[in-house]
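Newbie here. two chains, one complex. Structure please?
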Amino acid sequence: MKKINKYALIFITALLIGCDKELSELNIDPNNAIAVPPSTLLTTAQYNFYTLIQGVAINADWGNLMVQQWSQNEFTEDSRYRQDINTFNGTWQTMYASILAELSQSKKLVDDIEIPVNIKNNQKAIIDVMSTQVFGFLTDGFGAIPYTEALGDSPLPAYDSQEVVYKEMLSTLENALSNFSTSSSSFDSGEIIFNGDVSKWIKLTNSLMLRYAMRIADVDADTARKYVIAASNNLISSNSENALFVFEESLPRANPLHRNASPQGGNRDDYAVSELLVTTLNSLGDPRLEKYAKPNNAGIFAGMPFGLSDNDASVLKATTSRPNDAVREATTPHVIISYAEVQFLLAEAYERGFLSGNASDAYNQGITASMNYWNVTDTNAINTYLINNPYNTANWKESIGIQKWLALYMNGFEAWNEWRRLDFPQLSAPAAADISTIPVRMPYPLSETQTNSSQLSKVTSTPGSLTEKVWWDVN
Amino acid sequence: MKTKLKGILTLLIAFVVHISYAQTKTISGAVSDDTGPLPGVSIQVKGTNTGTETDFDGKYSIKAKPGDILIFSFVGMQPVSRTVGSSSTIDVTLKQDNVLEEVVVTGVASGTSRKKIGVAVNSVKAEDLQDAGAQSIDQALQGKIAGTVIQSTSGQPGQQQNIVLRAIGSLNSSQPMILIDGIEVSSSQNSVGGASNLSSRLSDIDFTNVERVETISGAAAGTIYGAQGANGVINIITKKGKAGKIKININTNLGINQAIADDRMRRSTLHRYSTNAQGLIVDTSGTPVTQLNGSAQYLAVDVNERTVGTTQLGSQGINDTPFAEQTFDATDVLFKNALSLRYGVSASGGSDKIRYLVSGNKTQQESVLVVGEYVKYDARLNLDFDVADNLQITTRFDVINSANDTGTNTDNANASNLINNVFQNLPHVDLFNRNSDGELTVAPDATDPNSVNPFFFREIQNRLDQVNRYITNFNIQYQPFEVLSLNAKYGYDSYVQNFSFFQENQASHIQAQQIPTNRRGAINNLDTQEYFQNLLLSANLALDFEKDLNISAPITSTTTFNFDWRDRFFRQTTTSGINLPEGEFGQFNVNQAATKVFGGVLEQPFRTFGFLINQKFDFGSIAGFSAGLRRDKSNRFGSGKSFTFPRFDAYVNISELLESDTVSGLKLRAAYGEAGIQPLFGQNLFTFQLTTVGSETIASLPSTVANPDLDVEIAKEFEVGTDYRFDFKNESPWLNSIDGSINYFDRKTEGAIFDLGLATSSGTSAISDNAYEISSNGIEASLNINTYKSEDFSWDFGLRFTKSKATLDKIANGLPVVVGDFFVLEEGQEIGAFNVRKVVTSLDETDSQGTPIIATADRDNFTVASSGYVVNKNTGRAVITSETQTLGSTQPDFVMTFLNDFTFNDFVSMSIQLDWFQGMDVYNRAKQWLYNNGLHEETSIPVTIEDPTGTNQTGAFVSYYTSLYNTNVPTSHFIEDGSFLRLRDISFKFKLNNLIKLKEVEQITLTLSGRNLITITDYTGLDPEAARGFGNTFQRGFDEFTHPNVKSYNVGLNITF
């Protein structure tokens, strides 16, 4: 018996030890990677961010509608301002938990790899500029947002005021500029805007700095001036230098509005150009009308009045004009920031005295650039237009406001930002709408009211409000 | 004188001796049980060493004298004593031991007689699994076991039923472990095209050659299975061959199946569209819509907007115009009668040394919904070798081959869901209309650009699931010494599954532009390989204090040591191709696709092992207790961790103390045990997700981040119960015996794993964490009454009752988690609660902050309609909160089954099973979809609304119903009570061999039966029992056009030679 006991014990121990060793070898996931090249995360973040900004939730169902350039033609709830804390729930989540988290991981991975310092700095600077754009979107839309405590160890990040966020954003851009070095490369692949071209990134960063600095010109002129000056010497200076995010022909990577209208997206036909857009373009004699819209079945450009009831809209659906097919082809790019926009920003800078220059010239340059971008090349027509719609320094907000509104067509979010700031063109809420003023902010998301309510309640008691202006939106 | 007496005495003694010697004779006879002769029966002359055994034919002979008592005994049978009389022939029939003597092998460290176990083990015998309409073992078990709730969640062939033993104990999985003869086999369910389209490995398992099924319901008995035992265990014990002449059994069954729909869920018979003078629906130009266009499409209808006073109530129309056109009933159009067929043959026999059972079956089940069938061939061989007196080897080989093309997408309202797409077309649309090419239309109704003809897709799509599976197991039982027995079990289960989805190239169709995806055809292949191994070694030391240790106390000690090891290899490969040549399914494979895409590989390695030590003491058969410990390691736990699970149980057989004839069994028992549930693959491994776009591979973060510190979920369960049996030996044929058991259990799962919601601005929206605590408790009771027994008639009554509730006690950060929009996990709430917006029912209702939902200034614009909902006086729109609330519960309050068996003389018997599910809520999403556009019949019920002028306006206002549709957002109006009473089975068995006596034929039984014939319910969807979310622990009770169950009429014939 004793002998058996001894052998049994040895057998059992051997069994257990042998089995144990193999367990740790099996504790892996062979399907997914533990470490990836940081550029692969950057690609995902860039693709997701620009797809969202150009897509239905932020562009077609919000931006384009808030500035009343498009009208919904059958289901008109968004045009009637029926948004609440559920509307941007998914957007917020994707921005923080996907895009910003991936950018943050990417930056950490960059730190871990063995490459020359200059390349590392270029890579981290690019990632920072991307993150700044994301935070820029979040704060322009929602106002106060988690910034300093976001993406860190704090499970319930505190909210920072928009003022703090903007100042941090501008300082980050400044930092990135000081880290960029054109003598080194950045990402060899995976950076899908400029394919790692640092000089183009420098121009983009300066142009973004100009945009964000001008945004706060009414509330903090000193900071604005400082950054406008810093940005002014290396901006995007022609249409060929436009910062575009190009989509691909194949459907999964195509322009999101194209996908929405394609059979795979459900063959949606929810949008018409608005009556306001058509009448404005017509009254200004604007050659871009036929680029922005498509004639209806009778060959006329017939805009849909904005903000009708579902029924009233669907009655007119068949006879109204759709947006031009070219604005939502598979490869129609998202304009991150264009030469035209830079010129309008400079015009304003000149007007405000931040920089010295001729506002009227810049204004004309901006219109011309926009015309050219939209394939209006007839210089006579453009010149006639410029003569008929001159820059009016006494009402500069109206001049720049209306032209910018037109130039920012299809970049609905930015158009809405600038409309809120410049207050031109003058728009009014539709009669059938749920509230009587046009929304000037995005409602906070349901997930924050549920999971982070202690912090959210410190900045607002009405998270679903559409009418509380953000910090830079004075008057 | 002395010598004379001595002589007489001697003579007398000699005489007596002569007489006694002369009276010892040879007694012979035959011993049999109720199926035939029994070899191997031991016969002992009481009080002597004389003994023998019955031979191959059950015959014996033994020397004994009149007055001697012969004891006949055999394992599993009640021993019989006979006194030797004048006759030299004694024939004996042995009967199965009563339930309390049977040997149980599940949930106990080693095989133990039922009298001596301290945990609740359920047992279902073969004859109770003979429901002719059941197509798989989980269906056959429905309602038979108290505490086991098996819900049929789909009528699609090849799917598994939802099995919950006692109560939901985990948020990841509630699937119990499935064993065949004590060895675990794979019971995975791989998706073949959708969340409700799963290929179940449980349906592979042959259940026609099952001897009995033993189940244990929770951690108290599950400890011995360690980190996989918490959800309970179902152990299928297969029939073995018996020594003797070869016995052949033929079993056939034929059934006709129909979908269960009854009168529930119908489309509206009244509509809101403009009609012409003949009452036909017209489009905006006045043309009747049934005047088809060139594509054989119905023209777009024109809504007849009505003026209702000065209000907007009629702005979307009123559902009050009857159809003048021919209309089609959706369920008539969708479902057809289907045939199911099964035939099988088995042969068994053997000798003392080798016994075998070999069998084969073919099963064929057509679908009631698509043109397709599930065909399965299976065969097995059971061999038992008695190599020596103390060494037995048993082995079993199973081969299964199946092909199933009944798959459809029935998990949501998408374009491939047949049921959804029929219902969402207007009733006048004839989906079988053909266009000028003679083909079915793609988009039949121009009213809705998203209108889809499901039958077009049914014709051009195929989903074929093929499975080849081999299961082998070996069992070696060796007893080197009387007190020590060793056992080794090894099982190897492997299968290859090939699933192929095919869609024809239909680019030449007139409406090709409206085919949403794969217009030029596509093939998607999903190939899966899985190998599962289970090794179980055990050593059992059984010491009788009196016999082995010479201590005079009637105690037996049983020490058991078990080691078990499991290993699983799983690999799934996806490949697809688009742009196929024109042609039908089967003509080509993915190699001919113009674009071939490799979709990736998924591997999930798994290995776990553990050991158990258990010590048991029994005091005779009066009482006993045992205690044990199990320790597990696994590659799914964070590295280097192991978990220990303790157990303890005790019992007392009061019946032994009472010594009453009536109380033949009364046992009280209590047990406590801990068992675990392993984390799912990958939950403890932080990784990036890789996807290939074009030729690039990009990385992204998964939405739920993994947690390297993950622990196993631990279930701690306490159960207390009683097993009882009362025999009333009286003259009356009424009330002969009552037996059953009652259990109470209390269970806590600590560290249940699920996504923990985090503030998204922290950069992670969810992480897998042991953040939940679930508690449940309940009662399960079974009762069997032999109500009446006489020569000509007997009636047995059975009752199974389960009442349990599982509550989510704690979430680590206290934040509720919304899952899949409709369900919410909230502290203090029952598991499986809905997360909905509430339709307001009173004008001064307030939200959770106390703010009135309708501002006081606005109240004049609203009124309470006749339906009880608050609506806007002008538009008729119902007021719905924008906050969500937790409402409803998908867990039933209780589940009860009534079983009745009647025998009329020797010839006819009848059995009836009634299942009753009470108190479970179902979210009727299908109805919600149909509230849009006034499709559901409820939308033509008029509602009365007080308009702003104070007049009552009555009508089936579409704007009211569309507001309840609420753009498909979860809304309280659609939570319904899904309680139902179902006639699960009614069958008549005719023992024809008692009428026609044929030589060689032992029995012929003809069975006529019906399954799921009658359903009584208030639920308004197709089938209250069918719901989405298969194998999903708490996302149940959700009906979005799910495949209803089938009712069947069956006839079967069973012949034994």
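Moderator note: The longest helix of chain B spans residues 2-23. The CA atoms of residues 945 and 953 of chain B lie 5 Å apart. Thread marked as resolved.
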